[in-house]
Amino acid sequence: MVLVPAGKFEMGGDHDNWSAPDEHGNRVVDIRAFSASQSEITSRQYDACVRAGVCRAPLFKAQGDDYPVTGVSWRDAQSYTAWLSAQTGDRYRLMSEAEWELIARAGTQSRFWWGDDADPAFGNFGDESCCRPAVGGADTFESAAPVSRFKPTPEGFYDLYGNVWEWVQDCYGAYDRAPRDGSAQDPADCRVRVVRGGSYLLPSGFARASARYKLTPGARRPDVGFRVALDPDTP
């Protein structure tokens, strides 16, 4: 886990001419400190919950223990964080959409934290013509890559751009209804959840820091996983 200090940042895609309408409406978000996992949760980590009889087995089998778990729904991710919390005594959860964008931006307003142009040294992106895997440069993977194989952000986070989409806690909705404190937009009647970060199947434009996508909470796709967060002041 990597500690992220409290701070403010500008969230949204108003500065990016590639942005979609659902990214518009930039706002300053004031986030309290939290910790997040360096990488996506791996097959090995998730399998411990499956073997404990708590988590449902993923729909797709990973190529190895150090690959991100995929084929898990938003609800499966909730089961995992609840199990991990019970095992450790800490309160793990999914990241909020604002927290995800904060660590992905790494203090920048560019499309990616390293600049506006995609670079395979930093992420596992799909073919730019959509929608199939691609290889080139440091990206030698035709599907998901093992975690932490590409260059991290300055704060030490891996695989925020590409590889597999990541479930976040938020319900999909307009930014004008989202909290300004960085917590998740999470109404009880939510029918569609947010994923962030793009994947190995999609062009780099889907992996931009402000890019959003929506899925039903029961969706289980071969290019969707998750990472976890932890509030440092919780027992």
List the main descriptive attributes of the protein structure presented here.
14% helix; 4-stranded antiparallel β-sheet; 235 residues; 4-stranded mixed β-sheet; 10 strands; 3 helices; paralog of FGE (formylglycine-generating enzyme); alpha+beta; single chain
Summarize the structure.
By secondary structure, this protein is α+β, with helices and mostly antiparallel strands. The protein has helices at residues 43-51, 74-88, 97-105, and strands at residues 2-4, 7-11, 27-31, 34-36, 92-94, 165-171, 193-196, 213-215, 224-226, 228-230.
Describe this structure in words.
This protein has a single domain (2-230), classed as paralog of FGE (formylglycine-generating enzyme). The chain is globular. The chain has three helices and ten strands. The strands form three sheets. It has a four-stranded antiparallel beta sheet. A four-stranded mixed beta sheet has the order 8-7-6-9. It is α+β, with helices and mostly antiparallel strands and 235 residues long.
Named at the architecture level, the CATH assignment is Alpha-Beta Complex
What would CATH call the homologous superfamily?
A: paralog of FGE (formylglycine-generating enzyme)
The quaternary structure here is single chain
Global mean pLDDT: 91
Task: Give the topology.
Blueprint: E1 2-4, E2 7-11, E3 27-31, E4 34-36, H1 43-51, H2 74-88, E5 92-94, H3 97-105, E6 165-171, E7 193-196, E8 213-215, E9 224-226, E10 228-230
Parallel strand pairs: 6-9
Antiparallel strand pairs: 1-4, 2-3, 4-10, 5-10, 6-7, 7-8
